[in-house]
Amino acid sequence: MASREIDSLIKATIVLGVQAITSDTLTFGAINVDTAGFESIEFLFFNSNIHADGDYELIPRAGDTTVVANHIPVPADELTVPQIDRFILNSVGINQIIRMGYIGKKRFISADIRSTNVTTGATLGCSLVLNTARHGPVDRSFQP
To answer: Which of 33, 35, 56, 143 lies at a 20 to 30 A Cα distance from 73?
Structure first.
């Protein structure tokens, strides 16, 4: 039973748009998310039932500027799921969501996907939930 409203304290956005990945590659996420005003951040990395084969690793990136190309991979000790095998989607399951929190000091967030062992590919994406707003209610308009 839901008894508390959280909508005014969170903001959901896309950090890596849903797309088909059909080869072994690094898919560069060009979306930059500003986390100012929020105390906690959660990545939601997901695949669809179109997932055929391959291994897909989410690589959270962070930086001090809005220039995504300057963002660096987030160190494992700044993620709530530091073991690499815990945020790899593979052909074992479909319609999976893997959650991972970020607890670092960088203001701007982006993400990449590294794909390996791909022959036909998969459809994947990554959303970001900005939580625990310092001041609510939050602006519910689309971000970035």
So the answer is: 143
**Among 89, 99, 98, 86, which residue's Cα sits nearest to residue 50?**
89
**Which residues does 92 contact at the CB level (< 8 Å), separation at least 6?**
none
pLDDT for 9-41, tens place per residue?
888 999 998 888 999 999 988 889 999 999 899
pLDDT for residue 91 is more than 70: no
Cis peptide before 82 (omega within 30 of 0): no
Residue 39 DSSP SS3: strand
- How many angstroms from the chain centroid is the CA of residue 11? 13
40 alpha-carbon distance from chain centroid: 13
Hey, where are the domains in the chain? 10-133
The CATH class given to the 10-133 domain equals mainly beta
pLDDT, position 89: 67
Residues 22 and 74 sit within 8 Å (Cβ to Cβ):
no
Contact between 115 and 27 under an 8 Å Cβ cutoff? The reply is yes
